[in-house]
Amino acid sequence: MPMKDNPSHIIVKGVCVDSLQDMLMYLNPKRAVAAILEFNEAVQKAIHLHFKNATQIRIVMHLAFALEREIARAPLTYEGARTAEKSVCSASLNRQ
């Protein structure tokens, strides 16, 4: 069964769109959720893992709010000390 026809996918999409409808100012919740779910599906395939509905909802909500903050030019910044692992990840992301 294709992901978009999967009842689990429909539930996740419905919960996220309904929840984000009144919370997002700039993003269209239907379009944002659809795009994030495509990304989520690609991640699941790439790592050969299936996320539970609750995990998928958390991912969608987190990314939707992060995108909204970026569009509003109000990103969150981390003030703590960087670990070696975070420094390596940040350096590799900045090279791309």
Short description:
With 96 residues, this protein is mostly helical.
Give the overall pLDDT as a whole number: 87
Biggest sheet character:
none
**How would you spell out the order of helices and strands?**
HHHH
* Estimated share of beta-strand residues: under 5%
Find the count of extended strands (DSSP E, 2+ residues). Answer: 0
Low-confidence parts lasting 5 or more residues at pLDDT below 50? none
Q: Class by helix and strand content?
A: mainly alpha
Radius of gyration: 15 Å
Percent range of helical residues: 55-70%
Helical stretch tally: 4
What sort of overall outline do the alpha carbons produce when their principal axes are compared? globular
Our measurement of the CA-to-CA distance between the termini, rounded to an integer number of angstroms, reads 35 Å
Could you explain how this protein is built, in words?
The protein is mostly helical. It contains 4 helices and no strands. Helix 1 (7-20) crosses helix 2 (29-47), helix 1 runs parallel beside helix 3 and helix 2 (29-47) crosses helix 3. The N and C termini lie far apart (35 Å). The mean pLDDT is 87.
List keywords for this structure.
96 residues, mainly alpha, globular
Helix-strand blueprint:
Blueprint lengths: L6 H14 L8 H19 L5 H19 L12 H12 L1
